[in-house]
Design goal:
By secondary structure, the protein is of the alpha/beta class. It has one domain: Aldolase class I (TIM Barrel), CATH 3.20.20. The chain is 40% helix and 14% strand. The protein is built from 17 helices and eleven strands. This is Radical SAM domain protein.
Length: 382
Amino acid sequence: MASAKDLFSFSSPERNGGAAPVVVWNVTNSCNMSCPHCYSSAVKGRSEYGLCLDDLKSIGIRLEEAGVRVVILSGGEPLLRNDVEELAVFLKERRISCHLSTNGVLLSPERARSLRDAGIVYAGVSVDGLPDFNDRYRGLRNAFERALAGIENARQVGMRTGMRMTLTSANAAHLDALLELAETHGVDRFYLSHLVYGGRAVDMMADDVQAEECGFRIEGFFATALDLLRRQSGLKLVSGGNDADGPALYSFVKTHLGDEAASVVWQALLRRGGNSAGEKIINVDHKGAVHPDQFWRGTASGNLLELPLAEIMSRPLFADLRQRETLLTGRCARCRYLSVCRGSHRERALAAGGSIWGDDPSCYLTEEDIAAESASRVEAKR
């Protein structure tokens, strides 16, 4: 069996390495579902289809000029558009790799094949619980069954696949069953997303998982990841939407695998550099407006149909996010993990407290966790 150090010898890109951001691109705001936590407040039906293909190509040229190399096509439901393949081919010709974020129900064998032929390399499919709950929650009959079929259809044509779940108090008990299901069905990646208060999810703050249970669920998630690594399973686990997961992983590894493995994790977290909204990731919405990330819907700094990306990202909101460590207040400002979290999601702070720079209300670390001797000093001694 691999050593603990080998199990966790992963790497992350430098935050300030100058690379262009990953772009989450909402190519439509229409959807065939009505999920309560939809960050884009997508409209059921085709009333918010999106920009015409020529405008999408104009935005694609802007992204190419900015050096963007990875785009995630999202929505709404992007597969409601019949021209996604043509857009993907256009982007591929410009050396931009396309990934797909979808609910999976339109991923027929034929559609999966055409998407693969267009150059889409990955399909991430959202599932929020076991069948009865998932179908009620997402507002479409047989959504669960059709999502799994979509994953299988993508796998059969050679696309890499992911299963995505957004964690809430209503579905937290479904997590372990979905993890088992993902491995059984040969999924490449399971993405566990914390609830971020954007779009319709602004009205779901009371449904967020409370701190104690969140910590419990995340520790179980890490334990499952360790088991998968030791068994050399093909399923990889990823979490997002809460940068407190980085310090929690560091503590988990330190407890279960010792100082050497924990030091590897700590260095990787430093390279990753914490939340990178507006830096390593941005969002382009269905009208071409640019946001710091896909959850940040209230403010746009410019539109790619009118301005180059570099000019948009030089504007005040993006400039402030690049120096957020100096602007944070409260628990975030005094947290020993500031360098590897950077205050997590500012959208939640804004939605819950009215200030971009206040506390992230979904931080589940305790006062004892954040106030101990500086982790950076501890690791510097090694």
